[in-house]
Amino acid sequence: MSEEKKVAPAARTERPARPEGRSEGGRPERPQRRAPGGRAGGKFKSRRKFCKFCADTSIKIDHKDPGLLGQFISERSKITPSRVTSTCAKHQRQLTTAIKRARVLALLSFTPLHHD
Ligand SMILES: [Zn+2]
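Above: inputs. Below: predicted complex with zinc ion.
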């Protein structure tokens, strides 16, 4: 009684299309992009970035206006980066120059006050 069960290893005749052989440029295809509309996590609503000065052209960047420039310096009297304030490159440049001028005119501070 020798009943041999030959379990054929799952249909060998048909090969699955696998990128084993480097046929196309030698790079296996990878899903690079995420599903459209789905951002990483999808937790946050996409808030449209806009430059304050581009949005309202009536605002003039003036080194004699410490009230406006003061919005763009941090607690430590540092100029806030444009990635935080979403100011465009053009206006960030003007802003930086204006803040530096205002500092020289003592309208803005170089450093926060030192308390003893
Ligand atoms: Zn701008």
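Helices lie at 52-55, 66-69, 82-85, 89-104.
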